[in-house]
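User: C-alpha cells for this one?
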Amino acid sequence: MPKRRKEVTLVKEVSLDTTNREVTTGGIEHFCTEYKWTRILPQLLELGAETIEDLGELDDEDFAKMGLKKLAKKRFLRHVVEASSI
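Assistant:
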C-alpha cells in the first residue's frame, strides 16, 4: 500500500513596529535631504539601504567606499540616531 503524503502549511507570524521609522526608499531620500547627505544617497541605495535602521548597520568599509572621513562618519551616525528617535 503506498504511503500517503501529508501536506502541511507553515505560517510565520511577523510583527513590524514601524512607529517613528520611515520604511521606504522615500524615507532614506527624506533622511538624506533633511540631514544634507544627498551626495551619498546613490551609494546608500546601491548598498541596499531601505530603512533608517539599515543606515545604522553600515561599517567602516562602507563609509570608506562612500568617501566619508572619520568626523563625517560620526556626524552621519549621530544623524541616524536622531532620525531613529523622532
